[in-house]
Design goal:
Elements lengths: L1 H23 L7 H54 L1 H42 L2 H4 L7 H4 L2 H21 L3
Length: 171
């Protein structure tokens, strides 16, 4: 508390002394305080001028960039229009479009087929026939659920049986 009071008192004292000096010396351009204050004011004015100059420069730069962008855009648009008009470019675009279409057809053929089977043919069949005709119950039999190795073995066995039967039968 005492130190704060001392600091306040000191500030007040210096302020009062400055005022007293200003009163006694009306034209006191020589005193140090006045010179300091004057130099601070001049510095502040210079800073403000510099800020204003920079602001103006920035505005000019932004305006120039905006104009340049417009010019670039127009040039790009003209180039694009010329390119679109060009016969060879149109030919290339048509060819690439055809390739894309073919690729899409190849890519989407299977999913579309599945979609078609599930959501078009099957409901139509259901409307027409009984459930037992639509659902192939034989697919749920044990043969499907055996491993590939076993099913391969079974196929070979069947093939051998068929071959043997062909040999036995008279020509």
């Amino acid at each position: 508390m005492d130190t704060e009071k001392d600091e306040d008192w000191e500030k007040e004292y210096y302020e009062l002394m400055r005022i007293a000096l200003l009163k006694w010396t009306k034209d006191c351009k020589d005193c140090q305080a006045c010179r300091r204050k004057q130099s601070e004011d001049e510095e502040a004015e210079r800073r403000a001028e510099r800020r204003a100059k920079r602001r103006e420069e920035r505005k000019k730069i932004k305006e120039n960039i905006r104009k340049q962008k417009k010019v670039w855009k127009l040039a790009q648009d003209r180039a694009r229009a010329a390119k679109d008009k060009d016969r060879r470019y149109r030919k290339k675009m048509r060819a690439s479009h055809r390739k894309k279409v073919q690729w899409r057809k190849k890519r989407y053929w299977l999913p579309m087929r599945i979609f078609h089977l599930l959501f078009w043919i099957r409901p139509m069949n259901m409307l027409i026939a009984n459930v037992s005709q639509i659902c192939d119950w034989s697919r749920l039999s044990n043969e499907i659920h055996v491993s590939k190795y076993r099913s391969k073995k079974k196929r070979k066995k069947r093939l051998l049986v068929n071959v043997c039967q062909m040999r036995r039968s008279p020509p």
